[in-house]
Design a protein that fits this description.
Elements: E1 4-6, H1 12-19, E2 24-26, H2 34-40, E3 46-49, H3 57-62, E4 68-71, H4 81-87, E5 90-92, H5 99-115, H6 121-125, E6 144-148, H7 152-163, E7 167-171, H8 180-184, E8 187-189, H9 192-198, E9 201-204, H10 218-223, E10 229-232, H11 241-250, E11 255-258, E12 278-280, H12 289-307
Parallel strand pairs: 1-2, 1-3, 3-4, 4-5, 6-7, 6-9, 7-8, 9-10, 10-11, 11-12
Length: 314
């Protein structure tokens, strides 16, 4: 039995470092094979996952020797932290270490959807020349970006957007009005309704919980500025996908980019199929070569320390 099971994509150098002192099973497809995963964790002391492995009661029941869970990312909604706490299992996320990657992803979506010209490759290759219909795009400068959530990622994105001449506002009821981050990034603090009504683009940077599930529903989409765009690289379930598809088809909003979904992988026949001005990616916003190295090295180090008895929880 392996000491450490790694069930999703991890930087090879970090895997090799772990394998230098511990017996490691690395299989990035293990998360797709639930029976094999349960068998693999039966004797392990450490488990390293991303977002697709559900570290909930059935898995934790199978992993009776488990001492540490490493999360290759910041969100913990796929890990039952209550059970881990009860059993003394230490949980190690990597907050902030993929913030640059996610912020760049969101900014790229904002620019592509604002300009509206980047879906034209098939038409140009077919001999068409759709200049007139693509000449109505917008420059970023002078427009407003609204952030829902103003933590590490939101603050990085605010700095990037400000450098391009966008004004930035944010809604984050958990960040005190006196926090220096608001002034440091020249960001206006707004209530949610005001943010939705006045922003040309909305980017989501909040965790998924009971308070944020379907936060962007039909009502919120109707409250958005006409022609505005929506970017979700946070968590699936924050956006009501059926309502979003309807808003795109009706032209109520100008476009959307989603990297996360209520159910992943996104099933064939989704309500989003055929919706216009929509960019979909497979939960890749925070995963670059650089961020993978940073996150993997951090998590590998924390898990190894925990199994050596050298570190406390979190």
């Amino acid at each position: 039995m392996a000491d450490v099971v790694i069930s999703e994509i991890m930087d090879r150098a970090a895997v090799e470092d772990l394998a230098g002192e511990l017996d490691v099973l690395y299989d990035e497809t293990l998360c797709e094979r639930p029976d094999d995963l349960l068998a693999a964790v039966a004797g392990c002391r450490g488990l390293i996952v991303r977002n697709r492995t559900r570290v909930h009661a059935p898995l934790l029941e199978a992993a009776r020797r488990l001492q540490a869970v490493g999360r290759l990312g910041a969100g913990l909604d796929n890990i039952d932290t209550d059970i881990c706490r009860e059993r003394g299992i230490q949980v190690f996320p990597a907050p902030g270490l993929n913030a640059q990657a996610v912020a760049e992803y969101a900014l790229a979506g904002l620019l592509m959807l604002s300009r509206g010209a980047y879906h034209s490759t098939p038409a140009v290759l077919a001999g068409d020349w759709p200049r007139a219909e693509l000449a109505e795009g917008h420059e970023a400068s002078g427009r407003r970006l609204g952030l829902i959530g103003f933590g590490a990622i939101g603050q990085k994105l605010a700095s990037m957007a400000g450098a391009l001449g966008l004004s930035v506002a944010a809604h984050d009821p958990y960040l005190d009005a006196g926090d220096p981050a608001w002034a440091e990034h020249s960001v206006e603090r707004l209530g949610l309704d005001r943010l939705l009504a006045t922003s040309d683009a909305i980017s989501l940077h909040v965790p998924l919980n009971d308070g944020t599930r379907h936060l962007i529903d039909g009502r919120a989409l109707a409250a958005m500025k006409p022609g505005a765009i929506l970017i979700n690289a946070a968590r699936g379930g924050i956006v009501d996908e059926e309502a979003l598809a309807g808003a795109l088809r009706s032209g109520a909003i100008g476009g959307a980019m989603l990297d996360v979904y209520e159910d992943e992988p996104l099933a064939a026949g989704s309500a989003l199929a055929g919706a216009p001005n929509l960019i979909l990616t497979p939960h890749i916003g925070g995963l670059t070569r650089e961020s993978n190295r940073r996150v993997s090295a951090h998590v590998a180090d924390r898990v190894a320390q925990a199994l050596r008895g050298e570190t406390g929880n979190g």
